[in-house]
Amino acid sequence: MLDTLIEKTKGNMMGASLKVKLIVLVLLLVIGFGIYTFLTGNKKNDTQYQTEKAAKGTLIVSVTGSGQVSTSNNGIVSTLATGVVSKVYVKDGDEVKAGDKIADVDLDLQGKQNANQALSNYQSAKNNVDTAQANMYSTQSTMFTNWDAFMKIAQNGTYQNEDGSPNNINRSLPEFHIADDNWLASEAKYKIQQNVVYQSQTALSAAWSQYQQTSPTIYAPISGVISGLSLQEGSVIVASTNSNSAQSSTKIASVKTKALPTVSVNLTEIDVPKIHLGDKATVTFDAFSDKTFTGKIISIDTSGVVSSGVTTYPAVIKLDVESDAILPNMASSANIITATKDNVLLVTSTAVKTQTDGTSYVQVMKDSKPVNVTVETGLSSDTQTEITSGLSEGDIVITSTITTTRTAGQSSSASQSPFSSFGGGARGIGGGGFGR
């Protein structure tokens, strides 16, 4: 009988455990459904619109580019002389003319050797010019002599008719052709000798420039204002070599001319077809971004430059004003104006949308609701678009839409737990003592 009671008790306990499991499962399903309903069914979407009035104004279309200040208005004062600086004739800020003395150098042995060699080359070049000119005078004399001989034969009665017309029959004789050929040959030799003189004069100029580079006196190559002078009395100038192991010149200073500064900017292959000579531009510099300079396009390199597989096209902008603050190789950015249009109806470019058929439209607020309006567009910049038809000045245009999701009653019960409505029931069940 005791065994029967134990078995009955076990059966009752198993039955109670199964009921508890079923109750917990149902409770979990109810809670899950409640949470899902709370998170989804009670959400509402709030839509806000940012708007503006369509207004008339001036549309400016431009492209951008970055680059640096070129050195076209700066010349370099350099020398091949080596030794000790004995005298300096100028200082930074001084105005000089081409050929003015910059400094004197007491040459060392290498410097003297270079100067003497350059002087010898100059003297040799000068002798070549004198010889070439003497030969030119000789060929000129021969040319005139042969021309005179030819004219005497050509005007002879044998080779010229009484009315002054040429006697073509007799002019086919060898005597006439010999005189004609002598004249033409001497004329050709004279022209060749003229070119020889020009060539020798060019060589003389190059020899003189080379001598000036090695001369113990350093001269200004162009007229302008001295800047960056690195010399003082007692300074030592030593020889430097380039990659080919040849002596390279040493930079002493710069001479800045009165030419307006120029800026070279790189344009993409998409932008360069839009640019034309004379286009206006605004330029800013990284060194002083609070200042803006104006200028115009004076050169476009349409051959392009390829770097790392990317092609860019350099364009040169000449600034309208000179500024001592603008230095060579300063980084710069430019906006190049490609088109301007006055008194046109404008909207923000983000307001214009395109449909699948290619037509454009904007959304306009009417009776506090957005309405799609088909429009025709004209020019556009990075920020604004011209509307040629479909809108009127003063229309309220939607530029952007902001949609926010809000849970119903969130403002009043944002801090309330979603499980609070079930808390009492859970505690009641727990308090009922499942473990008892």
List the helices and strands and how they pair.
Blueprint: H1 2-41, E1 43-53, E2 55-69, E3 74-79, E4 83-88, E5 95-96, E6 101-107, H2 109-154, H3 174-214, E7 217-219, E8 224-227, E9 236-237, E10 240-241, E11 247-248, E12 250-256, E13 262-267, E14 280-285, E15 288-300, E16 305-307, E17 310-319, E18 331-348, E19 353-354, E20 360-366, E21 369-380, E22 384-389, E23 396-407, H4 410-413, H5 420-431
Antiparallel strand pairs: 1-23, 2-13, 2-18, 3-12, 4-6, 4-9, 5-8, 6-7, 8-12, 10-11, 13-17, 14-15, 14-18, 15-17, 16-17, 18-22, 19-20, 20-21, 21-22
Helix pairs in contact: 2-3
CATH 2nd-level architecture of the largest domain = Orthogonal Bundle
The first-to-last residue Cα distance is 25 Å
Note the total helix count. Answer: 5
From the alpha carbons, calculate the radius of gyration and give it in angstroms.
47 Å
How are the strands ordered across the major sheet?
2-13-17-15-14-18
Query: What is CATH's topology name of the largest domain?
Result: Helix Hairpins
Number of domains: 4
Helix content, binned percent: 25-40%
Major sheet size, sense and barrel closure: 6 strands, antiparallel, barrel
Instruction: Tell me the strand percentage band.
Output: 35-45%
Structural class: alpha+beta
- Described by its quaternary structure, the protein is single chain
- Reading off the top of the CATH hierarchy, the class of the largest domain is best stated as Mainly Alpha
Uncertain segments of ≥5 residues (pLDDT<50)? 411-436
What is the helix/strand order? HEEEEEEHHEEEEEEEEEEEEEEEEEHH
How many β-strand runs? 23
Mean pLDDT: 83
Q: Which shape, going by the Cα principal axes?
A: elongated
